[in-house]
Amino acid sequence: MNAILYHGEPNGPSLAVLAAAFETGVQVALRRIDLAAGERHGGIPGAQAPELDYSVEGEGPVLVVDGVAMTDSVFLACYLDDVAGGAILRPADPYARWQVMAWCRWLVERVAPAAAYLGTAAMPPRTVPVGIANADLAERWEQAVTGRCDAALLADSRAKTAAGVTRVEAQLADGRDWLFGAIGLADFETYGWLCGMAPLAAEALVGRPRTAAWLARVKAHPSVARALALATVPEPEKVWAPGPEINRWG
């Protein structure tokens, strides 16, 4: 298998997939691209696929296996897990696996768009890249670059981030170390989107000691620490590119 992972700074979805690759031990060649500069568009040789242009994740990592491009960090992590045998990042039990996947869907639909919106509002990308096929993504780029942030969406994003932290806090209430059994996909995905929220939605973490301790444990976990060591900037958690579209149903 000839696998190349094109990733950004270890934050958000790139962090999740890097940690997943290291945790599973699947051998992938790493190629850093500047997601915040739009290098995913035209910066991946030979990768031509609708999934690349219309990824629901927005500007996330791309895994190219034998010339076939795949996107969306949850699915990339599942692919790596299956290549490695299928029960490293997700539980083997069918119901427990459903719980993990349901959690990840909630995370991508609710928390990820909020985190990306807050992140690009705080540190806007410099220019809109050329070659964006997805009109919705192009609009999000334009809004981020020009600083046209909607006050209501900022408030909504802070509220959704706080709701996400509340759910993490509740999940850890029984004293467990990780979100579902052993550390895995849910931890990597959730950490990737929440680790940069302290300066952007600080109130969300107030009075959440279990979440704070969990964040520290995930950060120190070997596969996550290895991913973070790939950073080319002092604070990779502050580097953002447009993420998933904010859902329109509340």
Automatic annotation (TrEMBL):
<protein>
    <submittedName>
        <fullName>Glutathione S-transferase family protein</fullName>
    </submittedName>
</protein>
<feature type="domain" description="GST C-terminal">
    <location>
        <begin position="93"/>
        <end position="240"/>
    </location>
</feature>
<dbReference type="InterPro" id="IPR004045">
    <property type="entry name" value="Glutathione_S-Trfase_N"/>
</dbReference>
<dbReference type="InterPro" id="IPR036282">
    <property type="entry name" value="Glutathione-S-Trfase_C_sf"/>
</dbReference>
<keyword id="KW-0808">Transferase</keyword>
<dbReference type="InterPro" id="IPR036249">
    <property type="entry name" value="Thioredoxin-like_sf"/>
</dbReference>
<dbReference type="GO" id="GO:0016740">
    <property type="term" value="F:transferase activity"/>
</dbReference>
<dbReference type="InterPro" id="IPR010987">
    <property type="entry name" value="Glutathione-S-Trfase_C-like"/>
</dbReference>
<feature type="domain" description="GST N-terminal">
    <location>
        <begin position="1"/>
        <end position="88"/>
    </location>
</feature>
